[in-house]
Amino acid sequence: MQGYNYNRQAVYSARRKKRRRQIIIRRILFAVITAVVTTALITAGIGIYSLIAPEKFDEGFIPTPFGKNVSKKVAIAKELEIPDWIESQLISFHTTARTGKNLADINNVVIHYVGNPKTTAQNNRDYFNNKTTTVSSHFVVGLEGEIIQCVPMYEMSAASNDRNRDTISIEVCHPDKSGKYNEDTYNSVVKLTAWICNNFSLDENDVIRHYDITGKICPKYYVENEDAWEQLKNDVREKLEEYED
User: Fold this and answer.
1) DSSP result, 11-34
2) Which of 53, 105, 159, 176 could cysteine-pair with 169, CB 3.0–4.6 Å?
3) Closest by Cα among 220, 230, 226 to 176
């Protein structure tokens, strides 16, 4: 009698194991089919949307069936090759300095000054990389004209307050408290700014100061000397014209 009960338990256990395997297989198949169907629907939805509303593709965004638009400029930034005159030293992910969040769009280039005379681009990049630091910029331009990239251009930096979401930020070193850039630094700022503008269909009027966003006296010299700021923008325009040749 005990042997009979044991056999029944063994058969019952085998059936339970078989049912579990069947359930697991069904779940895996369901997940695979769902993923395939979802991908097909998204692809078809984008295609249909582009046919019934093609003008939306010309407004700078790539539409999706779910109403979330992806900026074309941000997509370009992800694929853009950084020239060899820019040294990439991306800071690590920490606090708010680099969150890894994508930009919503790229509408302006914001010029800053580091506010710490005689510090180098490397000094400031390393400061951004400190785990307790909560600020950063996409680029830092140094006293010898060197340029270091700290944050990818498709990610948000932490330099321009509520405009972090749609701007490229450039922090600039300066030799003294006036905040005026030296010649090498100035030339690199103009070169970098024009390169950014050219790649994202911006012009010199899209180049702004931190001051223009929050009223902060930054970049100091180019807030206190409006003519110098206008000259910088004019020099960016002239540099941009070289891309048209």
Assistant:
1) HHHHHHHHHHHHHHHHHHHHHHHH
2) 159
3) 220
Q: Quick one: pLDDT band at residue 42, thresholds 50, 70, 90?
A: low
Place of tokens 């010309």: 58
Global pTM reads 0.74
CB atoms within 10 A of CB 161: 13
Integer-rounded Cα Rg, in Å, for the chain is: 27
pLDDT in tens, 216-244: 999 999 999 999 999 999 999 999 999 98
User: Cα dihedral sign for 68, 72, 77, 78?
Assistant: positive
Q: Are the beta carbons of 124 and 183 closer than 8 angstroms?
A: no
Tokens of 199: 């790649």
